[in-house]
Amino acid sequence: MKPAAFDYHRPASAEEAVQMLAEYGDSAKVLAGGQSLVPMLTLRLAAFEHLIDIGRLAPLQGIERRAGGVRIGAMTTQAAIERSTLVADAIPLVARATPFIGHFQIRNRGTIGGSCAHADPAAEYPAVLLALEAEFEVMSATGRRVVQAAEFFAGLWTTVLADDELLTAVNVPVWEGRCGFAIEEFARRHGDFAIAGAAVALQLGDDDRVRRCHVALLGLGMTPERAAEAERALNGIRVDEVDPDEIGRLAMEPLESIPSDVHGSAGYRRQVGASVVAKAWRAAAKEARGE
Question: Is the pTM of this model over 0.85?
């Protein structure tokens, strides 16, 4: 099949891009890496009168260390993130999530901003950035704002971005001290979207008690979400007193919108989800203890 007819625009700057978004409204769509949008257009699962291609906007690309964190331009490719020693050293959970994304051909074109704006609940970056409490830089023709990751994802393939807004960068905090990070997921084939997955970021005190632990889930709801009950149960407990299987159970217990489809029933996903949470916790705890 071929996509429905559209007008193609290639703005010379982010400012020009948001002016176009303001002019064309909901009849326009931003084209980033195109790894999700183009197949949807080709299959006519979506149609827009205007496509605004921001793929060549250099100011929206790049990775840099800033006070307390790492700023990644929205148009930075997943392949560039995968190759970055800065990402691997400062925000290792982002680095470890990247190889799970499709195949290297997809990562050569796909971007971190495109993945987050597309907001697929089974995608890796949205869950990882939620676990790390990242911030999203957003601009429109009338100004700029910062959105917390916990507020950014609004529903299935939906974010809080208005029709005239453009995601320009992601700011990821750097965790200091005795920290461990892990991402685990289950997919039927490498490169497929996860049936269920979990990202864990853990920080221990000198007494081996959990100072903070964030558990983010993917593929288990309409949005990526934090396992709040599991996190509360972990707070302040000695790491050697944690039952990983119980943490997995607590992470699944409150979930009410686990999808059920040809890839797996809700009950199956709940079982797999508990297992990957437990596995990710074990790996993160082992790293945090220096083992």
Answer: yes
